[in-house]
Amino acid sequence: MLFEEIYWLGTEHPADFELRSELVSVGLKVHTISFDTLLPHKDRIKRLVVDYSLLTEKTKLDELVKFQKKYQYRMVVLLPSGTINYEILNHLRIDSYLFESTNKLENLAQIKLWLKNLAKESDAFDEFNRSIYENFPFAIYEADDAGNYLYANKAGCELLGYTKKELLRLSIKDVSSEKKLNLELYESFKKVGKMSDYVYLKTKQGKIVLIQ
C-alpha cells in the first residue's frame, strides 16, 4: 500500500462531501469520523484529514493539537476557498493541504497530485527502511503465512550460506533442522509477535546455527 487508510474529520458541507466522494471513487478507503468518535479510533488513525472550519473553534483546535502530539497523526487540512487565518495552522504539524471544491475535475486533479506526493513520500520511506534492514548486523527474515521467505537481509543470507535469490526460493521448512518444532514456533510468533524460544536452522553447507 502507498499509505494508510484515511480518516476524515469534516463537516456536511457539499464541497466536503464532493471531495470525499472523489477520494473514494479513485479507490481510497475513507472513514468519516467526528470529534465524538476521534478517541475510539485513536489507535487506527495514521493520516487524518481535517476541515479548516473545525480549527476555527478553539476547543476543537486545542483538542487536535493535544491528540496529534500524543498519537503522531499525519495531518491534512481541507482549506476553504474564502479567507484563511494562517496563524491557526501554525499550531499543528500539517503534511499537506486539500482545497474545497464542488468541481469534479478540480477535485480529481488535486487528488492525483496528492497521491503522487504520497507515493514519493512512501517510496522514500521504504528505501530508508530497506537500507537500515539490509545493513543491519544481525539476520533479519520475513516470511508469509505459509512460511515462504519474502525477504532476507545481507547478514541473514550470509548466516545460512545462500545468496538472496536462492533463499527467496525457500521456506522455513527447507532450512529447519527440527521442522516440526520450528514450524510450531513460527505459528506462535505469528500470534504473539515474538519468538518464545530459540530456532535451529540448517545452512546450505549442512551446519546447524542457532537464532532467536
Q: Summed up, what is this model?
A:
With 212 residues, this protein is of the alpha/beta class. The chain contains nine helices and nine strands. Strand 4, helix 4 and strand 5 form a beta-alpha-beta unit.
List its salient traits.
single chain, 212 residues, alpha/beta, two-stranded antiparallel sheet, elongated
Describe this structure in words.
The protein is of the alpha/beta class. 45% of the residues lie in helices and 19% in strands. The protein has 9 helices and 9 strands. The strands form 3 sheets. Strands 2-1-3-4-5 form a 5-stranded parallel sheet. Strands 6-7 form a two-stranded antiparallel ribbon. Strands 8-9 form a two-stranded antiparallel sheet. β6 and β7 form a beta hairpin. α1 packs across α5. It is elongated, with a radius of gyration of 23 Å. Mean pLDDT is 77; it is low at 192-196.
In round numbers, the mean pLDDT is 77
Query: What is the spatial order of strands in the main beta sheet?
Result: 2-1-3-4-5
Strand count: 9
Could you spell the SSE succession in H and E letters?
EHEEHHEHEHEEHHHHEE
Q: Can you tell me the residue ranges where pLDDT is under 50 for at least 5 consecutive residues?
A: 192-196
Shape: elongated
Q: Separation of termini? A: 29 Å
What secondary-structure arrangement, pairings included, does this model have?
Blueprint: E1 6-9, H1 14-25, E2 30-33, E3 47-51, H2 52-55, H3 58-71, E4 74-79, H4 86-89, E5 94-99, H5 104-135, E6 141-143, E7 149-152, H6 154-160, H7 164-167, H8 172-175, H9 179-192, E8 199-202, E9 208-211
Parallel strand pairs: 1-2, 1-3, 3-4, 4-5
Antiparallel strand pairs: 6-7, 8-9
Helix pairs in contact: 1-5
